[in-house]
């Protein structure tokens, strides 16, 4: 039996978050501990859109979490927890979050996904707030001394074909013939 059919049967052909029967699909909960049906939820098109794009979040739609947060399915509990955290500025959502009970390992799973989402949301930007991508060319905006040497990268130096790092505040590139880590805030995209 496929994961989709297992989840659909478990959900009773309804969205496990809001109960809708329209445009159903399986959604794998990010940062899941495994790749089984237990790490997936059945969601409708509306829920999927709002989960994937925080800008479209309709707080009134998510009042349905009042019911789904009590699901026996860990993946549904984790999704309800994450969504309530996202809506925690709303009094009703914070009240539900305070009432919610989850096992420690489920809270850990939920928090791990929240942390990953926050990291994904942080973009590497230049001095003007312009997003930087791998392969972009930048110009250094002020003289930068290179740690551990007497070398100074002069203002106006071009760094071509930058690479992004795990830290969104830094980029790597070749300046003055040397590969180095550069603070993105001291660069301007060309």
UniProtKB/TrEMBL annotation:
Domain PhnA protein N-terminal proteobacterial as annotated: residue spans: 8-52
InterPro entries, alphabetized: PhnaA_N_proteobac, YjdM_C
Domain of life of the source: Bacteria
Entries under SMART domains matching the protein: PhnA_Zn_Ribbon
Name this protein carries in UniProt: PhnA domain protein
